[in-house]
Amino acid sequence: MAAGAAAAALTFLSPESRVRAAGVRGQRSPAPVTMDSFFFGCELSGHSRSFTFKVEKEDDAEHVLALTMLCLTEGAKDECNVVEVVARDHDHQEIAVPVANLKLSCQPMLSLDDFQLQPPVTFRLKSGSGPVRITGRHQIVTISNDVSEDDESEEEDEEEEVELSPILPAKKQRGRP
């Protein structure tokens, strides 16, 4: 069960962190991976048209913002409310992408099914007056690089236990008359 959780946690890591977590070329066992998840929510409206989610402290953890839903809340007018996300692409260039066009009479909410973004991320209410509620999870994946002496000795013991017996040729069986 713990191995499955560690594998799931690795899907949230950047390629460099995946290599660090899995060990270098199989020379050592994977580093312990922990994943914490916290609720996230913000509201965009005519009074606050943007919200920036950023990680304040510098650490070795990987931070992922997984969006689950955008919805119009109480007091919304029947108008188009376009929500735009400003983030960085794979070349670290800032990119703005509209992710939702909500209207009270035809589409008051949108499920994003854990749409994952790397902070910093800015949400903007491009058009409409809202209020639009954005919900999701802030996931923090931490890789522990500390390998204790007990862990190293366990690895050595496991390597010794895995001795394989040599493969012997198959015996020929004589056919029955």
Distance between the termini: 54 Å
The number of distinct β-strands equals: 8
Count of helical regions: 3
Q: Which of globular, elongated, flat, extended, rod-shaped describes the shape? A: elongated
Listing every helix as H and every strand as E from the N terminus to the C terminus, the arrangement reads: HHEEEEEEEEH
Integer average pLDDT:
78
Radius of gyration: 25 Å
Strand content: 35-45%
User: Which residues sit in consecutive blocks of at least 5 with pLDDT less than 50?
Assistant: 1-10, 18-27
Label the structural class.
Answer: alpha+beta
Strand order of the largest sheet: 1-8-3-6
Largest sheet: 4 strands, antiparallel
In brief, what are we looking at here?
This protein is α+β, with helices and mostly antiparallel strands and 177 residues long. The protein has helices at 2-10, 15-22, 149-161; strands at 33-44, 50-53, 62-72, 81-88, 94-102, 109-117, 121-127, 132-143.
